[in-house]
Amino acid sequence: MPLTKPVRRKHAHRRAITCNGYEREDGLWDIEAQMSDIKAETVENPERGGFVAAGEAFHDMAIRFTLDRTLFIHHVEAAIDQSPFKMCPGAAGVFKQLEGTRIGPGWHRKAKEVVGGAKGCTHLHELLPILATTAIQSLWPSMEDDVMDAGAKVMLNTCRTWAQDSDVIKRYLPDHYNEEPYIA
């Protein structure tokens, strides 16, 4: 069902996030997310020559995870190509601390501890859950022969459809079904 027709309005801002997953020839996977913020009007910015012109990227940044089929992160690269402050690009390096972690239950919490808050960059941090989802969507078909069972290992109790008491789990993954609702 589409959104309802909005009232008259004026465009102010566009945030675009693009994610891609790539299977590499060496057997590893690159998962990338790129984010840009573009203002519809020129905004003042003393650290970017006095202003950022309408249509020019206010933020432009990307992050890449290189991981294996078990979602173990071997390499992280982050870049901040456009930002409102000159010091922002210096925050990209902290994301290398995610190397050696594995995407799975509790990973978002661990990532926040390692690179969240004043340690890193708010916007790169916002890309982490999207990267994790993109990784799972990219690798899922190659993880194991039984795609549904592989999905259960990373998706069980992450949403209504994947809840342990849902009709989907009862029908397709009866070994994981539990009539008691999951309480986090």
How would you explain this protein's 3D organization?
The protein has 184 residues and is α+β, with helices and mostly antiparallel strands. It contains four helices and six strands, in the order E-E-E-E-E-E-H-H-H-H. Helices cover 25% and strands 27% of the residues. It is globular. 19% of the residues are buried. The chain has two domains: 13-143; 144-184, no CATH class.
Biggest β-sheet strands, sense, barrel: 4 strands, antiparallel
> In angstroms, what separates the terminal alpha carbons?
30 Å
Multimeric state of these chains?
A: single chain
Number of domains: 2
Mean pLDDT: 92
Q: Major sheet: order of its strands?
A: 1-2-5-6
Instruction: Specify the number of helices.
Output: 4
Number of E-state strands: 6
Output the structural class.
alpha+beta
Proportion of residues in extended strands: 25-35%
| Overall helicity | 25-40%
Approximate shape: globular
What is Rg?
Answer: 20 Å
Order of helices and strands: EEEEEEHHHH
Name the poorly predicted regions.
Answer: none
Organism: Neptunomonas japonica JAMM 1380
Protein name: DUF2889 domain-containing protein
Pfam families: DUF2889 (PF11136)
